[in-house]
Design a protein that fits this description.
The chain is α+β, with helices and mostly antiparallel strands and about 130 residues long. It has a single domain, classed as Nuclear Transport Factor 2, Chain: A. It contains six helices and four strands. The chain has helices at about 1-15, 30-40, 45-50, 55-70, 75-80, 125-130; strands at about 85-95, 95-105, 110-115, 120-125. The chain has a four-stranded antiparallel sheet. Strand 3 (about 110-115) and strand 4 form a beta hairpin. It is globular and about 40 Å long.
Length: about 130
């Protein structure tokens, strides 16, 4: 009787558990790299894990995802195959780092902020809206 209840319950619990367990970023560079790589790969669940969760950041990430989803498979592959080129990684203070990068597919330069809140390093995309602020 116990086997009939225990094993199906165990399977259900395993199926409902989060199949994506991402590693907490150790520092600003780690958070930025993981976020950027996930974005280039089209893995927006993972990118969201490294994103500071507020409405503006979520809106920007949703737009990036829609733009990525509209690309043909060949262009998506070019992004997945692209390498990240760090241009500058500048510490603003002990909780804020400015991360400027490009990728080898599109040479456009992008700057994001990586912030530490409650010991967690997360990407803040609002720098894109207000560069230099």
């Amino acid at each position: 009787m116990i086997k009939r209840i225990f094993f199906p319950s165990l399977l259900l619990l395993a199926a409902c558990s989060d199949s994506h367990s991402y590693k907490k970023a150790e520092d600003a560079q780690d958070a930025g790299r993981e976020f950027i790589r996930a974005s280039l790969d089209g893995d927006y669940d993972k990118a969201s894990f490294y994103l500071y969760a507020d409405s503006t950041n979520q809106m920007l990430l949703d737009k990036w995802k829609k733009d990525y989803d509209r690309m043909d498979h060949e262009e998506q592959k070019k992004y997945r195959d692209a390498d990240i080129r760090v241009i500058t990684l500048q510490t603003v203070n002990d909780s804020v780092t400015s991360y400027t990068y490009a990728n080898t597919y599109k040479k456009d330069t992008t700057t994001i902020r990586v912030i530490r809140i409650n010991g967690n390093w997360m990407v803040d995309l609002k720098e894109i809206l207000h560069p230099g602020k």
